[in-house]
Amino acid sequence: MLSLIVRRIANSVFTLVLISVVVFAGLELMPGDACTAYLGREGKGAALDACRARMGLDASPAIRFGQWASSIMSGDLGISTQRDKPITEIVGWRLRNTLVLSAVAALVGIPLAVFLGIFAGLRHDGPFDLAASGVALVAMTIPEFVSASLLIMVFAVGLEWTAGVVTIGYKASLPEMAAAAVLPALVLSMILSAHIMRMVRASVIDVFKSDFVLMARLKGVPRQQIIWRHVVPNSLLPVISVIGLTIAWMLGGVVIVESIFNYPGLGRLAVDVVGDRDLPLVQAIALLFGITYVITNMVTDIVALMLNPRLRTYRA
What we know:
This protein has 316 residues and is mainly α. It is 79% helix and 0% strand.
């Protein structure tokens, strides 16, 4: 088990290094740089050279990447070239807000998906199963900006239960931010629930048809005991990794949802800074998203290995 955990950690570190290299190379291939974006029409000649020297952009890409990586290893995310502030000061509050949004979406979506998946799987091909599967399929296929627009029309414009966009600042308190995250979190939880619900449903159907469940039924074990002692625990074990992957995938939708609802999180900040060519800030945001993605997958993978002896033996 220890060797497997070490292997997962090593793979995670390699993934983060690869993410950093890809983001840096992608921004380098884009036309212009932070100085051309900052100076605008005056970005030429001596003014451009002086700006690049001041920001350290006159060095080679390899040297600049090495300097940035060295700072990251010491816990320093650097200075924003456009905002002239420490990056930790810029992203700290916004990272908290994004985590609040993701937590609200997960707390709503995961229990709902597990309940619906179990209920649909135990009654597969019935009216409830067909209805739930149809709704889940629709929720999976509708883009985030479409479902967000529909929810705004219903809850903000039609029912007037909440505001269509978030108007509080990024330094608002946790209760205020959690309240503002309800509508954006609902968009994320719809897609999150749809994916997990379908996986739970399929797992329940497979386990219910397994030999040990058939043997328990032949021995006269009560149906409720079969369901809650055998079917449900064995159905949820393989889904743990899927839940982790779905939560990690949800981070990609955060960028779109935060932009639509004007939610002051890390995703909204990412959209703003890409146009500024603020390379250190873009790299820091990408790295934070990558760290969250990798940690989520690594934790769920390790939990699945610890709880499922068959999976642990297979992967070993």
